[in-house]
Amino acid sequence: MGGKTTGKSVVCFGFPLSIFFIVINEFCERFSYYGMKAVLTLYFTRFLHWDDNFATAIYHTFVALCYLTPILGAIIADSWLGKFKTILYLSIVYAIGQAVLSVGSISDLTDHNQDGSPDAIAVNIALSMVGLILIALGTGGIKPCVSAFGGDQFEEDQEKQRSTFFSLFYLSINAGSLLSTLITPIIRASECGIHSKQECYPLAFGVPAILMAVALVVFLIGSRMYKKFKPQGNIMLEVSKCVGFAIKNRFRHRSKEFPKREHWLDWASEKYDKRLIAQIKMVLRVLFLYIPLPMFWAVFDQQGSRWTLQATAMNGDFGFQIQPDQMQIVNPILIVIMVPVVDSLVYPLIKKCKLNFTPLKKMTVGMFLGSMAFAAAALLQVQIDNSNPVFPAAGQAQIKLINLGAVPATVQFQPQLQSVDVAPNMETGYMTFETSKLKSLDIISGNENKSQHLELTERQRYTLAFKWVPTRIDATWIEDNVTSKPEDGKSLVRFINNFSFTVNVTMDDMDFGKLDPLSVSNYSVVPNPGWSYTIKASLPQYTCTVDSKEFGYGGAYTISLDDCVENKLIITHFEDIAPNTVHMAWQIPQYFLLTCAEVLFSVTGLEFSYSQAPSNMKSVLQAGWLLTVAVGNIIVLIVAGVSAIKEQWAEYVLFAALLLVVCIIFAIMASFYTYIDPNAIEAQFSKEEKEKDKKDQDSNEKEAETDSRL
């Protein structure tokens, strides 16, 4: 295995002690990566205020970069620095990237006027992008090195221990992913800040940065115990040179005077030995099947972008509040359950039924299930869209009526458009009118009549609050200034004073100021809609309080302050915008389908690849596999960047249809594939080489015998 530097070998439970440092390092690194990645899309949309399409495009650009850099990391490790130094140096880059991203998410960094928003958002964007590029270099660069470096720590006769190590290694990956996807969204949803409290992205990115620093320290502690092999050269470079030479040589001999060769790679036989050419042929047969695979990854990796954004428009009340970015945890949980179930139950059952469920058939079924997952996401999106309120279009306005009085009222919209009855302490829904047609309205209540002249702005919503008092009707005309559901799944609340005197209104630590009779506060964001808040109205002689009911996520409310009985405030809740009603649990079926797809496609894909190529070519196949993931993410960023599709459900249908088409193409390609046994081919080459060596030896002996006679 070439030259190596051997550290002090310490054994623990039959294992080299060094591998425990590597497993802990991997847990911390995966926690760092998945924790940061879980909250990234919401960071783009909520902190940097990018629209959904641009946020999706940047997210997938980052993921694509994370899967392109492993090729670079493998070349650096095998040809220049060796695995240990590559892991060490790129981990430092990685930790710096996490720290820079965390600093870039601090709103107070450039908030000179202390209003809670960065004054120079370009600084935050620049730091965030630099941080993400460094993270992509770090996580991608060390990806192909860590597991292989762990494998290097074992002796040749420790095959059983090496197998156990890889099981522990992948367990640490899943554990890191699970915990971080659970924890960092909770940290993100908490509030922090110097000048104003808002979602705590600095800490949500800071905790992964700390974990990456811990990973680096842990890796360094074991430094003296590691076996460090010197770089042996990278097989990918050798393969690239051989392929390049074959193409160049074929081009030179393109005229008809040169006889054709069985395979175009045979044009490399002048420079490269037959065994290497045969090995590359085996690899290329597998890589050819990789061509359709990026479409699966284009669908799969949208869990962290489109599906997270979908969850922001849903109700996450499970008895406790689930954050939209926490729904991604369903995938690793289901993976832990599904892999052993499929291996020990489903596959044996299929085998008993005498069905020939080959690896390529498994991958085809996986692609089909991925397509069905996005069909399920499209159906769910239609339900969400149907539950959303309809806002006024161009040339339209909407009006809602609230009767705050104790007697019924009738409102007539002029000129003679319609008449609406409103019961005491009741509201109507928003009614849509053409702005050019509606000129005024009349309120009739308790034998009194009040006219209101209207000048409506298109695409606006208005509220008319009124009540009858003896001898007159009091009314207030409110421009709502809300033309979409509240962002980020938060709720909005405002208060209307139904007392006959001025009151000061607070809700916990939120101050709505002094409200004159029948005046309305501006909408304010409810930080945690799932909580109950204490509403306090300070009257001239005394103070009244009451606990609010819980606010729904994504709703908007008007609360009327009606009366005070024995210091208890009497209030009425009016719903201006309905909260999110479609439950996040409805995302579980699409996650289940996609996880089944992953088990059949991803796990089987690598296993199939390795079984169809020589062992020394595994790194080439891994590079090809990672490249399909990168290309898949590039497909998403292109669609998000240039697509003219405005409806999200239609985009889901597009991806489902594309993957279904690609699934059919892959099934056709797979039907022409002939399975081979690389070991048998290798054994044949070894046999031929031995026979050749024996012939050469016999020939040399005969020559030597002849020479001695002479």
What this model shows, in words?
The chain has 710 residues and is an alpha+beta fold. 52% of the residues lie in helices and 17% in strands. It is built from 16 helices and 23 strands. The chain has helices at 18-47, 52-81, 83-104, 121-152, 159-189, 201-221, 235-252, 274-289, 294-300, 306-311, 330-352, 359-387, 588-611, 618-642, 648-671, 678-709; strands at 4-6, 11-12, 15-16, 191-192, 198-199, 227-229, 396-403, 409-414, 418-422, 426-427, 431-434, 440-445, 448-453, 460-469, 472-479, 491-497, 503-507, 510-515, 524-526, 534-538, 543-547, 556-565, 568-577. The strands form seven sheets. Strands 7, 10, 11, 14 and 15 form a five-stranded mixed sheet that branches. Helix 1 packs antiparallel against helix 4 (121-152), helix 2 crosses helix 4 (121-152) and helix 5 packs antiparallel against helix 6. The two termini are 44 Å apart. The model has no long low-confidence stretch (mean pLDDT 87).
The helix content, as a percent range, equals 40-55%
Low-confidence segments:
none
* Most strands sheet: 5 strands, mixed
The proportion of strand residues reads: 15-25%
Query: From the helix content, strand content and strand pairing, which structural class follows?
Result: alpha+beta
Question: Overall pLDDT, averaged?
Answer: 87
Rg value = 34 Å
Overall shape: it is elongated
Give me the count of strands: 23
Number of helices: 16
Query: What is the oligomer described by this structure?
Result: single chain
Spatial separation of the terminal alpha carbons = 44 Å
